[in-house]
Design goal:
This protein is α+β, with helices and mostly antiparallel strands. It contains 13 helices and 21 strands. Helix 5 packs across helix 8 and helix 9 runs antiparallel to helix 10.
């Protein structure tokens, strides 16, 4: 019997060839070997993003649901560090006076596995986490702001670059400087450490997602609104606002990560603003095992590991666990504690909008026969609620960032920020279908933040008034090179801006005899909900009294004034915004 089958190995014919003698394109199974494929071009298109793992809450939570997440950062070629175009991670320890070996995220063995695996004891992962979270924060902030990040000053603007030190020194702190350094300390947990933190263990602030976002946001504020520093000594709200805005950025960006929300949504029955999570086990009797113990909601705890190491249960800030108190604002003077009130007001608005939106999903679920009395949510409903929460978090974060362009120059108060949010949201979405502006107004009111200069506590009264062009000596700017002016056009536009300010100093409530620090005119490009592109121009003007300019007598008096100017894309002035809610001469509300 023959052992050879009459059936061919492949039953299909070779690809069409130019002649019967051309055997090079036969499929596998032919006696003639295939020619090797042509090499890929050396200029292959790089991927759009780089995926890196980070801790979302705290390294002590390990692989618990939602703690390890993957972030997408813009791809760029990196040197060991990592060192890129705008972020340089320099792992120098000033306490030990040494450098640690830098991670190479472009090493093939590292890149193939998607970067370093999360590890509390691996300095390479520490470096990766700092780079990843800083990069994501820059991308989110820049997208919301509507323009590339640049470092601005009265004398001009320069490129924005950050230098991050994951193990800067042995100190219980993390901070940023106005020149772009991000320093993350490490320290020993106190004997009163709570939660999962062991007394005496080393705590690295560079492994706190919140600490990295807060520190990065602080550096960004120094770069894009350096005029705020003018108000640090003038009004306590300005320094407290700096603290609150950094805290808000960390919390809202955390809520924008769907992976971090799903477990909490399940354990709170969708009520993500509950301070305590439902226990995993049966709690009918007194708890006997750890699964029957209720836990704090990690979404509400700011830098939980950092706070627990200092003996503070619930993280560094606690206002989110307190009921609103309208009288507290008048009694609290410490900047961080005062800033907590502003943070709680904005998060109150976010949670209130989420609560209204989630009720629609619960009604639909019940109308289909679903039951919620067990406390467990089906996967489909949990996913929808997570999508809604992340979408609203991104929207609220974007609003807070956009509001920076509508804040007064040279310092602000909490009610100024409320008015800035109302105006920024109106400029983008006049209809306010989600009820964002009303939610903000009521949340601020509950905490005693009520603008003194507004005639009524209503949306129309709280919006900054539009400038009446009839009261301007020079009605608008004649600008060149927009939307992408070159250096020569920028200089000409800056001269035109100075001439406009001089001609309209009285209408802008500025003293005509003083000198002005005029910050570079920023071209902002944003889109509306219906995808219509919109362009506005923003700058800040801070006047300098003669004594303060020369450092002579009266140099420390509080006589300098400032105004934020917002122009439309055609150069017509829309808003002239000053601290204290007093509209400039000749302004009118439409």
């Amino acid at each position: 019997m023959s052992t050879t089958s009459s059936r061919p190995v492949y039953s299909f014919a070779p690809v069409a060839t130019s002649s019967d003698d051309d055997q090079s394109l036969f499929f596998p199974g032919s006696d003639v070997p295939r020619e090797p494929p042509a090499p890929l071009p050396a200029t292959a298109e790089p991927p759009p993003v780089r995926l890196l793992k980070v801790y979302c809450f705290d390294p002590s939570l390990g692989r618990l649901p939602g703690n390890v997440i993957t972030v997408s950062v813009p791809y760029e070629k990196l040197a060991p560090g990592p060192v890129g175009e705008r972020i340089a991670v320099v792992d120098y320890d000033s306490t030990r006076d040494c450098f640690y070996d830098p991670v190479d995220l472009d090493d093939p063995l590292v890149a193939l596995r998607g970067g370093m695996e999360p590890s509390e004891s691996d300095p390479h992962f520490h470096q990766q986490m700092v780079y990843a979270v800083v990069s994501e924060t820059l991308r989110r902030f820049e997208t919301a702001l509507g323009r590339p990040l640049r470092r601005v000053a009265p004398e001009g603007e320069s490129s924005f670059r950050l230098y991050a030190y994951p193990h800067a020194q042995r100190v219980t702190n993390a901070w940023a400087t106005d020149t772009g350094e991000l320093a993350f300390g490490y320290f020993q947990a106190s004997a009163a450490a709570t939660g999962r933190t062991i007394p005496g263990q080393t705590v690295f602030t560079c492994l706190s997602h919140d600490a990295i976002v807060m520190t990065t946001t602080q550096a960004i504020l120094y770069a894009v609104r350096p005029d705020f520093a003018e108000g640090f000594d003038k009004h306590i709200d300005t320094l407290a606002f700096f603290s609150a805005f950094c805290d808000l950025s960390a919390l809202l960006l955390r809520f924008s990560h769907r992976e971090a929300l799903l477990d909490t949504i399940q354990r709170t029955g969708g009520v993500i603003y509950r301070s305590v999570l439902r226990a995993d086990g049966d709690t009918a009797d007194a708890p006997r095992i750890q699964a029957e113990l209720a836990a704090n909601n990690p979404l509400l705890a700011l830098a939980s590991g950092f706070g627990e190491a200092l003996g503070q249960d619930g993280g560094l800030r606690k206002t989110l666990f307190e009921a609103p108190n309208p009288g507290k604002l008048a009694t609290v003077q410490q900047p961080h504690q005062r800033g907590e009130i502003l943070t709680a007001a904005v998060l109150d608005a976010y949670f209130s909008i989420y609560a209204r939106r989630s009720m629609e999903y619960f009604r639909i679920y019940r109308s289909g026969g679903g039951r919620l009395d067990s406390g467990d949510l089906p996967a489909a409903l949990s996913g929808r609620l997570a999508d809604e929460a992340t979408r609203l978090a991104v929207s609220m974060y974007d609003l807070c960032v956009r509001a920076l362009d509508y804040c007064p120059a040279g310092g602000l108060t909490f009610d100024d920020f409320l008015r800035a949010c109302i105006t920024a949201d109106y400029e983008r979405t006049p209809t306010d279908e989600l009820g964002v502006r009303d939610a903000l107004m009521q949340a601020f009111r509950l905490r005693g933040i009520r603008p003194a200069g507004a005639p009524f506590f209503s949306e129309d009264a709280l919006r900054w008034p539009l400038v009446d062009p009839r009261h301007l000596n020079k009605p608008g700017l004649r600008l060149r090179g927009l939307p992408e002016p070159d250096e020569r056009c920028r200089q000409l536009n800056q001269r035109a801006l100075r001439a406009f300010i001089r001609a309209n100093a009285k209408a802008l409530a500025l003293q005509p005899t003083t000198a002005f620090d005029v910050y570079p005119l920023q071209v902002v490009r944003r889109s509306t909900p219906d995808d219509r592109p919109r362009q506005v121009l923003v700058t800040q003007v801070v006047s300098r009294p003669a004594a303060k300019r020369t450092g002579g007598k009266g140099a420390n008096d509080d006589t300098a004034g400032g105004v934020t100017l917002v122009f439309d894309g055609g150069g017509q002035l829309r808003y002239a915004i000053r601290t204290g809610a007093a509209p400039p001469t000749g302004s009118a509300t439409k």
